[in-house]
Design a protein that fits this description.
Helix content is 74%, strand content 0%. The chain has six helices and no strands. Keywords: Coiled coil, Signal.
Length: 197
């Protein structure tokens, strides 16, 4: 029926357009369309026949199977992603635990280091106090001879802890260059100290 309508439409268009031959709209017994007498144009192309329902069904079935396979692939990918998410969460928790352990260890280490540093500082102060006591009991000329050969840092700490009059008497006998360096360091250190009201 559709073929007949199509051929009829072609014929109507040709007649209205005033060009070409007119073709028979409904060829008998499934024959090819034929030209009405007096026309010299070739017959129009035949339309391909619709595929049988079995072929259509097979195509639809193949498409359905393909879609199901794709859906299964997507489900597998989703499952893998969920598993990876669980693994990542477990790793994150493990890393958080390790971070906390490291922070705790660092805190303990800092506390030990503070304790050790404090112990060292107290030990150094004790030694400096002993030196102060020793140098305070010596004659200034003897003390100055030792200071001339002493490390500048130790000399500075010694003079910081000596009483002013004792430090002045010893410093008077110290080599001039060394005495100048000790005095400069003392001045810088005293500058950095907070003022006592």
């Amino acid at each position: 029926m559709m073929k007949a309508v199509k051929y009829l439409m072609i014929g109507v268009m040709m007649v209205w357009g005033g060009a070409g031959p007119v073709w028979c709209a409904d060829p008998p017994n499934g024959e090819a369309p034929r030209m009405v007498e007096g026309s010299d144009a070739p017959p129009p192309e035949r339309l391909p026949a619709e595929p049988p329902p079995e072929v259509i069904f097979q195509g639809m079935e193949a498409k359905r199977i393909s879609l199901e396979e794709r859906a299964e692939e997507i489900r597998l990918e989703e499952r893998k992603l969920k598993e990876l998410k669980v693994e990542l969460e477990a790793k994150r928790e493990e890393l958080d635990t390790l971070r906390k352990q490291i922070e705790t260890s660092l805190t303990r280490l800092e506390a030990k280091e503070k304790t050790v540093n404090e112990a060292q500082r107290l030990e150094e102060e004790k030694k400096i106090k002993q030196l102060v006591k020793l140098y305070s009991s010596m004659k200034p000329k003897q003390a100055a001879a030792i200071v001339n050969n002493m490390d500048i840092v130790i000399a500075e700490r010694l003079f910081l802890n000596l009483k002013g009059d004792v430090a002045g008497k010893i410093l008077a006998y110290v080599d001039q260059e060394k005495a100048a360096r000790i005095t400069e360091r003392l001045a810088e250190t005293l500058e950095d100290l907070p003022e006592v009201p």
